[in-house]
Each structure stands twice: as C-alpha cells, then as structure tokens.
Amino acid sequence: MRRALVQADLAGERGEVPVGAVVLDPVGEVIGVGGNEREASCDVCAHAEIVAMRRAVQVLGDGWRLPGCTLVVSLEPCVMCAGAITAARIERVVFGAFDPKAGAVASLFDLLRDPRLLHRVEVTSGIMATEAERRLKDFFAARR
Predict the structure, then answer these.
(1) Residue 13 annotated in active site
(2) I want to staple 52 with a disulfide (CB 3.0 to 4.6 A). Which of 32, 37, 77, 132 is the partner?
(3) pLDDT per residue over 36-64, tens digit each?
(4) What is the dihedral of CA 43, 82, 4, 55, to 10 degrees?
C-alpha cells in the first residue's frame, strides 16, 4: 500500500485526484504502477487502476489478462475499474479508503465478489485507509 500511496502523491502533485495503484505478479513482484492520469491524458478511463493494469500487461507481454496478480489501490475501485479488474482476471484487490459515493467493491456495490460473475476476486479493504483518506481530503480542501 505504501507504493500505491506514493503513486497517489505523484498524481496529486500533477493536479490529478490523488489515487495510486500497484499490480503485483503472483510471486509479489511489482509489475505495474500508476496514478490517476485523467486530466493530463484527457482520458476518462485513465484511473490509477487502469493505468497500473495497462502497464502490468505490457510487462507480462502475454495478452490482456493478469491471473494470479494482486492490485493494490489507495481508493476503493469504481464500477468501471471493478469491471476491468474482473475482465483481467485479477486474483486479489487490496484497497485503502472506502469511497461512499462511487465505490463498487464494498460501499455501493460488491461487484468483485458477485456470485453471478464468471470470475470473483478476493478483497481486502481498509489498509492504511486513514493515510489514503487524508490525501483525498487535503487535495479537495485545497481546491475549494
């Protein structure tokens, strides 16, 4: 989670919402990192999770799936990211802060563990949540 928070800090310094993500391969090696890039790329899909997963599949060089991998992200994934996580066959998601307005892993929905889906994801939540929440609160307070 500390590496994801570093990515969140870097995103915040670029004027992006401070969310960071890291993808670990099945043996725990970092294969993808990312922070939000929506503003810089003018890409609505450039959430930290998507950026990190795109980089991870490039490193693996074996298609678009990430079986056995873990995604660590500072903020609970949204619906779009949860869909991408299941499509990529990520095995485990670890997130920090809950997102009561858009969270699709625990807060509003529980998409990653929905038994109707072909692939379900192990979820660990609330890891270093206070640190992740502080970054978001500080970022938005500075813009008001």
Answers:
(1) no
(2) 32
(3) 999 999 999 999 999 999 999 999 998 99
(4) -60
